[in-house]
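Task: sequence design from structure.
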């Protein structure tokens, strides 16, 4: 019982909290793939930009809460410029062009961050201190805030795509962009705004996790691997599947760290993905024909 309360339960909660933030990152990746047909290798660097933008804004304003609003907007602007300048000319070409472009952008963004901020690890102090009694243990208040805030964001995103006119337009663009263009909708603008929104989600995830982990130029590389696993497990193009898979991977990784070293945990996560894909080749909720 003592092991359950002192060790297992906190790790399980850590996994749920991490899964909620990972869901924000993976959701943006899923939307970009579903809409643009591009597996964005630079998405992890947008996650990293969110953390560094937060550091800059906090340095100027001394407020994490201001950074929580401003940093995603700054990264959204970077995302919009990136989509217009680099990806838009490639939409009519083979998907391989987009893969190569985003891979190159990831390298450029990472090196740019290293030149601007250096390679040292940095920390953002949690804006909420203290702990709360929970299920017989003390749990950090900031992690509880992170779980609640990320969950509310995920719910808000679902409501946006299912209940608002703008969300329905984005979903229609995923299904048939040419038909939407024929109906008079400015499809390039939809693409740009959606890419910017996905970049903002990645930035939010980066800033929210910064007080839990450390901030450094390579932080996006580790997260993008997990995000790709989540997207594949959830089913390519499935937003609901990505959210469920994010919680599965977050909990699995957190619990496995109790019994394995980090290298073996990474192998085990890939093993989970392989097993799921053997049983369900399209992931949890993948649609037929998405990759054909």
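Answer:
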């Amino acid at each position: 019982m003592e092991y359950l309360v002192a060790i297992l339960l906190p790790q399980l909660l850590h996994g749920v909290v991490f899964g909620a933030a990972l869901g924000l990152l993976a959701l943006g990746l899923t939307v970009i793939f579903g809409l643009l047909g591009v597996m964005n290798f630079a998405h992890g660097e947008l996650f990293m930009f969110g953390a560094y933008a937060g550091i800059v804004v906090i340095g100027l304003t001394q407020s994490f809460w201001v950074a929580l609003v401003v940093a995603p907007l700054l990264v959204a602007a970077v995302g919009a410029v990136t989509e217009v300048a680099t990806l838009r000319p490639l939409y009519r070409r083979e998907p391989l062009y987009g893969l190569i472009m985003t891979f190159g952008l990831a390298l450029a963004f990472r090196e740019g961050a290293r030149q601007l901020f250096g390679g040292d690890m940095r920390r953002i102090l949690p804006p909420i201190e203290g702990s709360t009694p929970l299920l017989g243990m003390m749990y950090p208040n900031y992690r509880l805030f992170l779980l609640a805030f990320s969950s509310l964001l995920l719910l808000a995103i679902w409501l946006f795509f299912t209940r608002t006119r703008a969300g329905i337009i984005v979903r229609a663009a995923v299904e048939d962009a040419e038909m939407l263009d024929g109906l008079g909708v400015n499809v390039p603008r939809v693409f740009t705004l959606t890419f910017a929104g996905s970049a903002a989600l990645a930035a939010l995830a980066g800033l929210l996790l910064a007080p839990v982990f450390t901030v450094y130029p390579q932080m996006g590389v580790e997260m993008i691997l997990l995000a790709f696993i989540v997207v594949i497990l959830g089913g390519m193009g499935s937003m609901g599947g990505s959210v469920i898979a994010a919680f599965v991977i977050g909990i699995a990784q957190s619990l496995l760290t109790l019994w394995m070293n980090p290298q073996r945990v990474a192998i085990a996560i890939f093993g989970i993905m392989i097993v799921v894909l053997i049983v369900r080749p399209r992931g949890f909720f993948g649609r037929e024909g998405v990759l054909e």
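Residues 60 and 86 are 31 Å apart (CA to CA).
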